[in-house]
């Protein structure tokens, strides 16, 4: 576990959720660019089985939990009585959410939306982006666009360019490419499957690497890469998510620090 308590204030925070990405798919994908930043995906359990619930948990400090027994200390934690998973290295805050907590500490908070819960087109789609000072979404960032990752990273790079390097940034990006329909990223398959989700991730990876490289040039950052939940493609008769199957609860996770600084 990284020492988030000492990183907050000196480092930007870059938080990327790879929507619906299964752990086994992430493991099998060819990701040479991301492999320069971390050795392997950690197997974790999501606190929820669909996007809206998972992100509410994430933004209050309940990130995916290591998939082994035990009380695992948390990177971030909203303060509440009886917590058994805070640690001297945990960044503990009194606000209800991490975006609010970082804004109070001088961070500029930005959401780059992806799936429908971030599209701002309905009251429900405004809740999660509304936690941030600045938010962006367009149809070419959504799940039906074959160029969503490129559009999302382009918007994120503009944010990094526009904000002074003296200003700390909390940049959150919900990658929509790995959410169904993923067959649009595969030349031969017409039905969503682990193989089409892998193709979607591999297509998005160079764009994510561009973002990491830009952040590294900008300055030091704490980076979190995780899925919010997985996706069932017919296992035991289950399809989709918002259900209690192992392939839905089990997600890939990585955290690391990039750039210069303490």
Automatic annotation (TrEMBL):
Residues 77-245 form the Sulfatase N-terminal domain. It comes from the Bacteria. Pfam families: Sulfatase. InterPro entries: Alkaline_phosphatase_core_sf, STM4013-like, Sulfatase_N. Gene3D superfamilies: Alkaline Phosphatase, subunit A (3.40.720.10). This is Membrane protein. It comes from Deinococcus cellulosilyticus (strain DSM 18568 / NBRC 106333 / KACC 11606 / 5516J-15). The lineage of its organism: Bacteria, Thermotogati, Deinococcota, Deinococci, Deinococcales.
């Amino acid at each position: 576990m990284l020492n988030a308590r000492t990183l907050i204030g000196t480092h930007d925070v870059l938080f990327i959720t790879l929507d619906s990405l299964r752990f086994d798919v992430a493991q099998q994908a060819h990701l040479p660019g991301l492999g320069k930043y971390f050795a392997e995906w950690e197997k974790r359990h999501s606190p929820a089985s669909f996007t809206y619930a998972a992100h509410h948990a994430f933004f209050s400090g309940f990130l995916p939990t290591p998939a082994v027994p035990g009380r695992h200390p948390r990177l971030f934690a909203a303060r509440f009585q009886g917590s058994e998973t805070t640690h001297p290295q945990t960044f503990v805050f009194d606000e209800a959410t991490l975006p609010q907590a970082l804004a109070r500490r001088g961070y500029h908070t930005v959401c780059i939306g992806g799936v429908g819960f971030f599209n701002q087109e309905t009251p429900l789609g405004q809740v999660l982006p509304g936690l941030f000072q600045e938010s962006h979404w367009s149809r070419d960032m959504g799940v039906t666009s074959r160029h969503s990752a490129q559009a999302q990273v382009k918007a994120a790079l503009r944010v990094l360019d526009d904000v002074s390097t003296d200003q700390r940034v909390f940049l959150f990006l919900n990658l929509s490419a790995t959410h169904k329909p993923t067959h649009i990223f595969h030349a031969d398959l017409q039905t969503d499957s682990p193989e089409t989700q892998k193709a979607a991730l591999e297509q998005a990876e160079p764009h994510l690497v561009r973002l990491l490289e830009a952040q590294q040039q900008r300055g030091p950052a704490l980076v979190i890469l995780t899925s919010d939940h997985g996706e069932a493609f017919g296992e035991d008769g289950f399809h989709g998510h918002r259900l209690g199957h192992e392939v839905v609860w089990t997600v890939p996770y990585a955290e690391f620090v990039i750039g210069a600084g303490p």
